[in-house]
């Protein structure tokens, strides 16, 4: 009987260790997450879009001479910084690990924007904000029906803000 205890304990320890390794893998290798594809898309694309819009808006604060555009850019920075911090928490909480960086396409847009000044800058910046916010509204609208309550609540809570950003960007772009 004594000889049987050690193999049974060893097997129990091996099984418990395996479950810990599975969670570690999920967290660090993204083999499994706690959200569906819509949730992954919201977190990943939401973070990237937010970082892009913050970076472009920081340029607008420095480069624009239009006080309405500067005010809009400051609002974008404030609102998206807050939303991004929540998205980063959700990314961690839902066992997702991604590199939180701006894509090559978005970086090209920012680099192109950085070369512009005056009215040309404002026009390009506002066009970028309209395009990005149209995509964000679509993404958040889809996610507001997600089965994961955290994703659903976050999307539904932030959708009005994104719609307001889109409307304001269109209004300012039309005023040009």
Provide a short characterization of the protein structure.
By secondary structure, the protein is mainly α. It has six helices and no strands.
CATH class of the largest domain: Mainly Alpha
Given helix and strand content, the structural type is mainly alpha
Average of per-residue pLDDT values: 83
Unreliable parts: 21-30
InterPro entries: DUF4142 (IPR025419), Ferritin-like (IPR012347)
Protein name: Putative membrane protein
Domain DUF4142: 43-172
Describe the structure.
This protein is an all-alpha fold. The chain folds into 2 domains: 1-32; 35-175, Ferritin, core subunit, four-helix bundle (Ferritin). 83% of the residues lie in helices and 0% in strands. Helix 2 (37-63) packs parallel to helix 4 (104-114) and helix 3 (67-93) runs antiparallel to helix 6 (149-175). The radius of gyration is 22 Å and the shape is elongated. The relative contact order is 0.14. Residues 21-30 have low confidence and may be disordered.
Record the SSE blueprint:
Elements: H1 2-29, H2 37-63, H3 67-93, H4 104-114, H5 118-143, H6 149-175
Comma- or semicolon-separated keywords:
176 residues, mainly alpha, 2 domains
